[in-house]
Amino acid sequence: MSGGEKVLNERKKAILKAIVDAHIAGGEPVGSKFLTQNQQIGCSSATIRNEMAELEEMGYLEQPHTSAGRIPSEAGYRFYVDLLIDRYNLTESEIEELRGALRQKQNELDAIMQTAVTLASKLTNYTALSLRPRQARIAVGRFELMRLDDTTAVLIMLIGSVVKTKYIRSNRAIPPEATSLLAGVLNAKITGLTAGEITLPLIMEMERMMGEYDYLVSPVVRAVCETISGFDGGELRFEGINRLLAYPEFYDMDRLREMLALFEKKDKLLEVLSDEAHSGDRVQIYIGRENLVKVMDNSTLVFKTVTQDGKPVGAIGIIGPTRMNYRRVIATIDSLSRNITEAINAPKDKDGSES
Amino acid sequence: MSGGEKVLNERKKAILKAIVDAHIAGGEPVGSKFLTQNQQIGCSSATIRNEMAELEEMGYLEQPHTSAGRIPSEAGYRFYVDLLIDRYNLTESEIEELRGALRQKQNELDAIMQTAVTLASKLTNYTALSLRPRQARIAVGRFELMRLDDTTAVLIMLIGSVVKTKYIRSNRAIPPEATSLLAGVLNAKITGLTAGEITLPLIMEMERMMGEYDYLVSPVVRAVCETISGFDGGELRFEGINRLLAYPEFYDMDRLREMLALFEKKDKLLEVLSDEAHSGDRVQIYIGRENLVKVMDNSTLVFKTVTQDGKPVGAIGIIGPTRMNYRRVIATIDSLSRNITEAINAPKDKDGSES
DNA sequence: ATTAGCACTTGAATCATCGGAGTGCTAACC
DNA sequence: GGTTAGCACTCCGATGATTCAAGTGCTAAT
Lengths: 355, 355
Hints:
The structure is a homodimer. In chain A, the strands form three sheets. In chain A, strands 7-3-10-9-8 form a five-stranded antiparallel beta sheet, with helices on both faces. In chain A, strands 4-5-6 form a three-stranded antiparallel beta sheet. Chain A is elongated and about 90 Å long. The first copy, chain A, is an alpha+beta fold. The termini of chain A are far apart. Helix content of chain A is 45%, strand content 18%. In chain A, helix 1 (10-26) crosses helix 3, helix 5 runs antiparallel to helix 6 (109-124) and helix 5 (92-104) runs parallel beside helix 12. In chain A, strand 1 and strand 2 (71-72) form a beta hairpin. The A-B interface holds A 104, 106-108, 142, 144, 146, 148, 151-152, 154, 156, 158, 163, 165-171, 218-219, 226, 240-242, 245-246, 251, 253, 256-257, 260-261, 263-264, 347-351 and B 104, 106-108, 142, 144, 146, 148, 151-152, 154, 156, 158, 163, 165-171, 218-219, 226, 240-242, 245, 251, 253, 256-257, 260-261, 263-264, 347-351. The first copy, chain A, binds a DNA duplex through residues 29, 31-33, 43-47, 49-50, 52-53, 63-69.
């Protein structure tokens, strides 16, 4: 709000960066004296104090109380993050672990995301999250029907690249020939349609096609619709929640409780993330309440989209205190999402010749 | 260790019960004076003090420090719980909510358990858990194969009453006629077999049966084995972790962290629970470290098995502070598991005639 | 423009004090 | 003998005073 030119001289930059670094490392406010140790800044504490006062005026720093050091404001973190173009690179072994874990799961997006989120949490030591965003257009691409006994069958649906199943029970018989017929009708008539596009005339036509087995259409279609609506809700998973506790900013019970409540109130988050998830190919970083829910005062969200055939099919990210190790987190998330995207887009894995 | 007859006179029972009740309600140690308000105990504080001293000697009570009131020991809670034969009954509306939620999901054990665990957490206000125990003998009961394109297919397996799917990718073509052939071979040869029973001769025989498509057998069998071994690991889910925070006994950060760490270290829990899950038709209650992992000093675990065709297929439970509302929790878990068991065993739901 | 120095502010830690709650025990009471 | 009133004793927790150290802002000197 209040003015302040955007231009920072080199020394201010160095000081700001040093403050953020120090605060990330220690978690405490940092004072002028401490900064004199930093080689990059060749001046006395008094000078630094003056600079810090100006940085505070510009909104990059904050003072918890009069006689404490400074901590970076959200704007300060933002500046710092934007500065970080030189990526922290994962070590060879970390990359290997990642690749190895992904190689197991062939194209099972669900399983892959689960693996990835665990890995992300482990590698960064923060809470990780995986997201399957809400999608506008959900439709079944392929149906299959597996008959179990006289009155039971399993309906198998391919949605995107995810397989969903649903039990069908009927109080009238489901003869073997009816299942294949029904599967054929379903594939012919309602592949590619969203729940809203399955109309009554369509259903009636299907019933006509089913002949004497018309009674099966209604329950099956209902099952399809249920599955579709269940699917488009998106999905959000967390892993490593307890890692939050290791960081002093969450030692405050109330804050922690808010955070956990946030984790459970997935709907809200999902909504926001689903929007954001569609945007861009880069790692996205939300600092504090920059954009998202306001609960996240002291937290930062880092995530990146996973795409298949150019379309976002999920996202993976990290949530943690604002003073997080950005280099590492960014690198991890970037690398993970890149590898997942790669794994699900370049199929054809060579069939190793084990005994 | 030190002696003490098991017999408690009526007054002692009344006092012990009153203390547990009060401590559950308030969370604080309870003193002799407070208990005089209780109508059931018609005597003065001094008498009560004497009785309490004896109860402490017998091991049913503890004193945090000399000049505090008493709190129930684990043995005290145990006694209290065993005393609770009169069940707390859920209200009509609660039962209705439960039934309604279950009715939606037809026999999808996974979805049902998910619903149930959410409900359990909501109804009791504690952290709830659902368990699919480790099982000794896992075998596929039925195979189906869905062809997607020239090199991809989805293998669909019915394990118990759970459907699992797995992508199959091949670097050689998967022609349509091969899929049905392969499904037939799989159904003929390896239904009912555990991973260990799928031997090399068997595989070779299958390859012979597949004729020119023999190259498909190996990757598919491998997928089957992976799925089976993935499945027998059991599964443990938590819901409502943040509810723990509402209780003062978890206001201690370290305790809380231990607890959360426990939640993530599912393997261990799974192991213990899988054993226990097989036992009995009653609600099981573990108080403190009575039996389980030692982390759970101040916590109680209440759970009950869900059975299908008489066999345990899962369990649902609550975890919370030792001073929990046992009546309510026991009733909820009992009712939930009973309803689930009912839902998955008595199929044939009437097909309502909605327009 | 930079720096040294100093007065000032403020939260955190330490310590002593005090009050209340609750006990255990003894002596009186039924 | 069981029950109760009374009292001395213990111990925790809250309160408040004091001290301490860190860090600032400002002024004057370089």
